[in-house]
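Handout for the seminar on molecular recognition.
Each group receives one record of this type.
Step one: identify the two inputs.
Step two: read the structure output and locate the region that could contact magnesium ion.
Step three: write two sentences on what you found, then compare them with the reference statements printed after the record.
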Amino acid sequence: MKDIIVTVKNLWKYYNYMGQRIAILKGVNVLLYRGDVACIYGPSGAGKTTFLKILAGLERPDAGEIIVEGYNLTLLDDDALATLRTTIVSYIPQDYGLIDDFTVYENVELPLLVAGIPEEERRVILLETLRYMGIVEKMYTKVKYLSGGEKQRVAIARALVVTPSLLLADEPTANLDWENAKRVLELFTRINRDFETTITIVSHDARVLEFANRRFALYDGVLKEV
Amino acid sequence: MHYKILIKTAKYSIKCNGFNYVMLYAFSLILYIITCPGNVTLAISLILSIIMLYASILSDKLNIAQLINAYNIVGLKRKEIALAFYIFVNIRILLITMVYIIAYPNFTVIAYLFVLSNIFIALVYHFSFQRG
Ligand SMILES: Nc1ncnc2c1ncn2[C@@H]1O[C@H](COP(=O)(O)OP(=O)(O)O)[C@@H](O)[C@H]1O
Ligand SMILES: [Mg+2]
């Protein structure tokens, strides 16, 4: 029996657009197993970011049920959702969501500070993660001086330090050339292998699909496994 | 919440551009209060201080949004993020408070500055930063 990590049942999400209620996600259903690398392909505006943010507890659905590692997200309050982000789920936004004026070290340290990890332990975890991501020599560089590929690595490192069971990446290759994109995708594959992290990547680039063992298409608010 | 995050936030406030404006303003304010003492000056200076704080927040709007967004992603709670913002602004209020301590050490005036600016800043936070 494979261990289920994400259950999404009949998920609906609406936005108000010029006074009208528009459905962005129309009854999405999905089951993810531990260790899956799921890739959701869909054109721009399909609702991929919205879906990931809901999984990360950053947005709330209008209807449906989402269970991550046994936690029913719809029943949790905002504080509990925030705590989930320091323990179980890590979200990597498309624009990385880093603080440009902080160093790599400071950015990656943030989740560990939130989780209340003591200083020496923080340092050990940080160095290990930065080494793993191949950015340890940049650790005292401010993020604003890094290249796109390096920023992406920092964002992944920040997501990884808390050893989440679910890693969510929004268009991780959108701002990179294909060589760098491939390297980042291989990195996700390696993270998946080394830590058994379940990974969900959304992308409008169909080439990303080949790196996944579960492939989905999101069109017009409907998710289908392909 | 870890105190280090608050210290980092305070340092960030000092490093951001808006802090320079507040510093320049603080110097002129000392001169203003010392050269034209009086109640009218004080009243005007209070209003100016709040406008200046607002301007400094506006000029750092993108930096603040980045900070709040990052804090949100790494799992800081709503109240903790609000507290971080409060610290960010109050470092600047503290600087202006020092002006009054130097130029016109009067408890009532300082209390007014503190209360008024914090009410104002709470409104700014509520309407421009809290929702993404
Ligand atoms: N906060 C919001 N308010 C209103 N409409 C939104 C909001 N966020 C996203 N949308 C709309 O929802 C649709 C899906 O957005 P998104 O999830 O970002 O798509 P994708 O990531 O697939 O490009 C888009 O048409 C977008 O304009
Ligand atoms: Mg998107």
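Reference statements: The interface with chain B takes residues 56, 58, 78-79, 82-87, 91, 93, 97-102, 106-107, 110-111, 113-116, 158 of chain A (CB under 8 Å). Residues 95-163 of chain A form one domain.
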